[in-house]
Specification:
- The protein has helices spanning about 1-25, 50-65, 70-90, 95-180, 185-195, 200-210, 250-255, 285-290, 295-305, 325-330; strands at about 30-35, 40-45, 225-230, 245-250, 310, 315-320, 335-340, 350-355.
- By secondary structure, the protein is an alpha+beta fold.
- Among the domains are: about 20-120; about 200-255, no CATH class; about 285-355, no CATH class.
- Strands 5-6-8-7 form a four-stranded antiparallel beta sheet, covered by helices on one side. It has a two-stranded antiparallel sheet with strand order 1-2. Strands 3-4 form a two-stranded antiparallel sheet.
- Strand 5 and strand 6 (about 315-320) form a beta hairpin.
- The protein is rod-shaped, with a radius of gyration of 60 Å.
- The N and C termini lie far apart (about 180 Å).
Length: about 350
């Protein structure tokens, strides 16, 4: 009888232990929700007990992850899995805990592989960018080298052309000098003076004379072609120098040809010349008798207090700066010229001048 009582007590305690175990580990139909820190549910696990439900949810989370998943997604789910296991570890069987730890470890391996893959991609991208930069730099250097070679080649061709041009000029000069040796002295002089008429000298004469014909005052704007004329022709001993050059229009130059302009000189020996008249500039018309008293002209300008420059000592002209006096000279038959830019003798001021 006592044995039966002892067996009953043991069975009672076993039933009590089983009940306690069922209460602790959750036997029956269990479910667990996996929530993020924001409170949203990302998975739900089901099982006959709490441990199986947690393991089922972790399996579901892990199965949805792959190497193509975003790194932040893997990290977020790993955090949820670790938190869920931490909260339910004490109420789970050891085997279920190991299953959950397995899925957590696999998720960590996946995260490491993902990080390694992203690092590899980053390095690959940096390597491609570096190679692309090196390629562009190499192309730039190659382009610079080709341009440098091209410029060097162009400079070399230019020097060769200049050398050929100088050699050709030296050869032509030698031929010319050899040919001029057989020419008479006058022809050699003419050829030398013609050669001295350079474009630079021609421009200086044009600028000095205000780009205006020194006889009729015509300009290129009037439709006339301007020439640089030798006052004393080269064929008659005139030299190619500024003092013997002037600007003439084509018409005046063709009319002058190779003539030497006659300089009107005082003729005091003409006894029939009348003296100075108060009402007129000079007695006697210069256009009629072709002569005038040089001293009377100068005296008249002094009496009128007119600024003038006497160039007649060099066979030149008498310059003055009064339009009224210029008109009186014109009335008496003198050929009067006007220079807008003046000449060297007039300090480049506008002036009227008369040939004497």
């Amino acid at each position: 009888m006592q044995g039966i009582i002892i067996v009953g007590i043991i069975i009672f305690f076993l039933i009590l232990v089983i009940c306690l175990c069922n209460a602790h580990y959750g036997f029956g139909d269990a479910s667990v929700k996996f929530r993020t820190e924001g409170g949203s549910t990302i998975a739900t696990g089901h099982g006959s007990c709490l441990g199986e439900a947690v393991a089922d949810g972790m399996k579901d989370l892990y199965s949805k992850l792959s190497l193509s998943s975003h790194k932040d997604t893997i990290e977020s789910r790993l955090s949820v899995m670790e938190k869920t296991l931490f909260d339910n570890r004490n109420r789970m069987y050891r085997n279920d805990v190991k299953v959950c730890e397995y899925y957590i470890s696999q998720t960590k391996l996946l995260l490491e592989r993902k990080r390694a893959e992203e690092e590899r991609q980053r390095k690959s991208k940096e390597e491609k960018e570096r190679l692309l930069l090196e390629q562009r730099q190499a192309e730039k250097e190659e382009k610079y080298r080709k341009e440098k070679e091209k410029k060097a080649e162009a400079l070399k061709r230019k020097k060769e052309k200049e050398k050929e041009r100088n050699a050709r000029k030296a050869r032509d000069d030698a031929i010319r000098r050899e040919r001029e040796k057989n020419l008479p002295e006058q022809r050699r002089f003419i050829a030398e003076q013609r050669r001295l008429m350079t474009d630079a000298l021609r421009y200086e004469v044009l600028r000095r004379d205000g780009f205006r014909c020194q006889i009729c005052g015509a300009t290129a704007a009037d439709g006339y072609k301007l020439h640089v004329d030798h006052i004393i022709p080269v064929s008659k001993g005139g030299k190619t120098e500024m003092s013997n050059l002037r600007v003439l229009c084509e018409r005046c130059n063709m009319g002058k040809r190779d003539k030497i302009e006659t300089i009107i000189t005082p003729m005091k020996e003409q006894a029939n010349l009348n003296k100075k008249d108060k009402n007129n500039l000079f007695v006697g018309d210069a256009s009629q008798n072709g002569s005038c008293d040089h001293e009377e002209i100068i005296q008249f300008l002094k009496d009128q207090q007119v600024e003038y420059i006497d160039k007649t000592d060099k066979g030149g002209s008498l310059y003055f700066f009064d339009e009224t006096i210029a008109n009186k000279f014109k009335q008496k038959g003198f050929l009067i010229h006007y220079t807008m830019n003046g000449t060297k003798g007039t300090s480049w001021r506008a002036a009227w001048y008369i040939k004497l």
